[in-house]
Amino acid sequence: MEQEEEASAREDAGSQLILRIERPVYDEASIRSQLLHQKENSTTFCQRLAGKFRCSSEKAKAVAQSFLPILSWLPSYPVKQFLFSDVISGLSTGVVQLPQGPAVALLFLVPCFYGLYSSFYPVLLYTFFGTSRHVSIGTFAVISLMIGGVAVREAPESQFLYPVNGSNSSVVLNKDACDARRVQVVAVLTTLVGIIQMIFGLLRFGFVSVYLTEPLVRGFTTAAAMHVVISQLKYFLGVKTKRFSGPLSAIYSVIAVFSQITKTNIPSLLLGLVCLVFLYGIKVLNERFKKRLLVPIPGEIIVVIVSTGVSFGLSLAETHEVDVVGKIPTGLRPPTVPEFSLIPKLIPDAFAVAIVGFSMTISLAKIFALKHGYSVDGNQELIALGLCNFIGSFFQTFAVTSSMSRSLVQESTGGKTQIAGLLSSLVVLLVVVAIGFVFQPLPQTALAAIIMVNLIGMFKQFRDIPNLWRTSKIELAIWLVSFTASVLLGLDYGLLAAIAFAIITVIYRTQSPRSSILGHVSNTGLYYDVNEYEEASEYEGIKIFHSNSSIYFANSDLYVSKLKEKVTLTPCLWMWEKETLAAPFVLRAAVKTPQKLVFSAAVEAVFLEPLSPVRSIILDWTTASFIDSVGAKAIKQVIKEYAAVDVRVVIAGCNRNLLAELDSLQFFTGDMNTSMVFPTVHDAVLHCQNSSSR
Fold it and tell me: Where does the STAS domain lie (predicted)?
């Protein structure tokens, strides 16, 4: 007999939409036999495979545009509408990038001009391969500090100390050899980071960033900002200290700096303080008047020019021993092949840098894409970053990601496309090729001030703590563990510890789901927690059990325990068997509960006759997304236990994927069949009411 289903919606003036549905009560057996039938797929596997590799002009164009996103927008670039904005944005971003590149190079503990190379090649490459229109690619303090720790570990200064005049009592550091070795280490690490990112992109692993939850990333980057500031204290104060790496390196560095506090270089400190106060003031002005300013006031470049002039005019390096940038070679370096023999030692570090770098880029890219109404491709972003790092490493650039401060400048000054990024890289190229020597007297304390001020936004993330305390204690715990572990253990081990803790919180949530008994709201077909809503009331003889979790090996026992606790009826079958006079009875299974004993002759079976009026239990699985073999066995067992005391258990709200898993687990065998599964809780309730009335 053909079944009819009618749904109508009516909206009268001043009234709500009304939903009316009249249909039979379905169970899974009737759905499969009457309502739903699988589509027959006439396409063979070979045909589908051939379709994947079939070439056409449209497919070739789509592949080319996917790999080179610039081809999708450059041919239709609106010159009149976008060019002026991109030029202003590119020049502004380039001016900001000029001092930040050499400043961040201090974190690598290599000559500052290498930071300029990292501000040119990767930015140029990202213009062609990136999908974001607004992020500014280049050096970033957090990534730089992670790489700097690796450089110190693999090329410590102790390996480059040589005796003076053949005496072991007096040694001198061969700084050129130390710098050259660290450049090799960082270049190889960057190569490896690029390879990992490209492989991840080709394998469509753009989803890995979801495992770095926002509280984890914000706690981690705040800890990284702490490391960066601590590493810059010695430049700011003008003291000489050893660079530490590994667990507790931050504490050791602070102790080392303060142990040398009496040797502070006063001119260096005073110049650094003036730069710090000036930059902070400019930052406040730019933020307060950003709507009135055509472009932000370039505080960093002003500091670089003025401090360089003061240093040169007063001969600070010669007369006051203020550390300066030093020699900056003119022109670009020829490509060189990294020393690949170092790769085995750097694989764990490369994975950490690759994932953190990508996560920062995709996070910023998604923010700008959402704001300006376009989309970014996470997999292509991985490929773009991988190419920037891999190709750039042959030109002695270091691993890059997006910079928050420069990206905000590029976006806020009107940047429309990566033409702005291309122009900013050309500004850097001009300095590298023509006028780099001008900045040789630049004091390192000024660069340290630039880095510290640009980290103010990171330290504002401490405001997350009270917000998370009010909204989510678990996310607060992730933030605090990420921050504390990264500060104390170092950024590499700290990141691993934070990820492990975040995964543990997921396991904890699935192992400790919230469970409840549902009741109906009259004349609605809706079901809610009876302990939470006074309008929700239970049907007589029916218990509807809801748990907001899937059922698998880690929580199946807890699921069953909560079910028995909430239903307040514990099924029990005691099997007693006479064995010996010394031990006349052996207990096979027992549960404490109100009971009445019924004895038989040879084998004495003791059943509980339920004092509760419950006749049916409905398991609401609307929130369950998967089940494994352990969970399926636990559910089958509890259904059999309740059946032994004449209480029927049915399942409601099962999605099709979960049903397919139950089929593959051979759940519907023996006494279990598809007629015990219902598409909605209301279907199950009506079925149970009809069964009990017979």
Answer: 532-688
